[in-house]
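Submission sheet (multi-component)
Chains listed below:
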Amino acid sequence: MPNLIKNAAVVADDWTVLDKAEAPAEQVVPTGKVIIPLSTWLAQREQLLARAPEQTGVWLDSDEEPDTIGADLSHFSVIAVNFPKFADGRGYSIARILREQLHYAGELRAIGDVLMDQLFFMKRCGFDAFAVRADRDAEKALAGLADFSVTYQASVDQPEPLFRRRMH
Amino acid sequence: MYRYDDYDRQIIKERVKQFQGQTDRFFAGELSNEEFLPLRLQNGLYVQRLAPMLRICIPYGMLSSAQLRKLSEVTRKYDKGYAHFTTRQNLQLNWPSIEDSPKILAELAEVEMHAVQTSGNCIRNTTTDQFAGVTPEEIVDPRPYCEIIRQWSTFHPEFAFLPRKFKIAVNSCPDSDRAAIQVHDIGIQIVKDAAGEIGYKVLAGGGLGRTPMIGSVIREFLPELDLLTYLEAILRVYNRYGRRDNKYKARIKILVKAMSPEAFAEKVEAEWERIKDSPSKLTLAEIERIKSFFTEPAYLALEDQPAALTDRLAENKFFNNWHHRNVAQHKKPGYAIVTLTLKKLGVPPGNITDKQMDRLAELADQYSFGEMRITHEQNVVLADVEQGKLFELWEAIKSLGFATPNLGTLTDIICCPGGDYCSLANAKSIPVAEAIQERFDNLDYLYDLGNIDLNISGCMNACGHHHVGAIGVLGVDKKGEEWYQISLGGASGQDASLGQILGPSFAREQMADVIEKILDVYVSSRNDDELFIDTFRRVGITPFKERVYAKPN
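Outcome: structure written.
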């Protein structure tokens, strides 16, 4: 059963997420659409830059630095950010940095412990794809994207804070 | 005070609906305990020793009489007819059911109240001076800035899952600090620069808990419009680099200390450089809009110190005592700031019944333009009382138990709910407060002792702020028994300091005797009108130690 939400719909997922390797420099990166761990990307960057961007993604763990791929963004069709636990909120900051400071415009996918009650915040921070945890129903989780219709702060989905938009 | 518009109302309405859904899914087994936990915490719902506890937000302590009447109704309908004011200017219900919580939130929404972010690892209720807007000491009313922070921090998408809870306090008085900003994750001191421009001195990394620390100044002057972008930069650095492996080392104070305040400030500045001109930068129009909610009420042109007051003060010693301790100077002639103390003997500090709430709402309507403030010392302030009506008000509050003239004295104790209610506590705190209040009920003696902050926490989470009490009491667990450790010399104001531990802990029944010995040392060592804290700073802890732990001959 597909469990990927993209553009507010449940869709089939044709990407494979590659696990982190103990020796990133030696990890074999298969052909086809793969999302590569950041450590492997950095260790094999010279060779991997030759891959077709349509088949290449990278994923960051919550303690990794988005700035390290700042120069490589055009080589990715997907950037994924891992939430090792849903209560680990570092991924929200990583997403905003990727969107607002590094101006990444491609697919930004939340992976890991991704649950309905966090989708709204994730969407606000710039995620547009959500790999909902396998034991949960992505169709049901969709509702989480629309928990609120009004927000106070500026963020990726609404660059102007409410105080610049308020109607009187 | 701030009034909701359609946007604010919509957000709270959608929150109630969201939480109802989350609660339903929890009971249907679709959300595990572990998953529901942070969701309910961010709605102020704890599961406590005896029942759930719901913490209702009172933004920066401001409360209208209509809101208080609703709180009274909710307390009656869903709880046992009493509630508890906290040290974060909030209100706790101790016995609601989880199933009722969404209904309670729906009722609160009718009067523009909620329980958003009153708990959990997120930005909590911003607190400030309970005399904001009425004290002659302040540079500018800090409440509009608190409201701006409230809106920015409410459901901030990036900071809902921080390493740990996060507390911001704002002070606007140059020479006093009733908001204890030096012991907050972020302390904001509103200042004016040489050109007369409003701005902020920013402190970070203060806090109590098991590793108490005084905050460090990370920016001497931040211009007025840069408040939110700078807060965002601090929070982002903390969110990304604060420790998450150990909850006892996860507060921002640990990060600031580990990096050093200078390196932390540099990191914040670097982040701020990237976002300071983003749309989150405040506008003068927005500041003016928010300020328009905090305009002065319709003050009358009154004579200062009218005969109606001075005559009564001259003829009634008890009224005079109360006036001396519990009434503060107002910025307008003829008006006064009145603190009603919720520290009556035999009542847990901060507790209030539904009937008291109804009566308090009437008093606020009658004497103070229908508004009041909750203080972090767990008292209630009527901020705009005509001096000529003080005697009348005093008569009215005496029978309610709100006129104990002990404000600032030894028996105006800050106390957490402790082991009677809280599942985290190592020891009960309320019976210790009661034993001390009972022993020292002689007002002349209390007045002679002068201002002494006595703060009690039932565990090292320090909800009772024991580290910053001139006398601090901490409940500890020794092999399953409840013991109490004493510290001396703490302060939370402008001269903030952390208390030093006196020595080995005591059993509950020894506590009143030990406090008495400490006071004896103070009384025999003080010079003239020297306060307890100043005597302690001069003579040090040794004489206190020697007396308290002296072997009987």
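Remark: The first strand of chain B starts at residue 45 and ends at 47.
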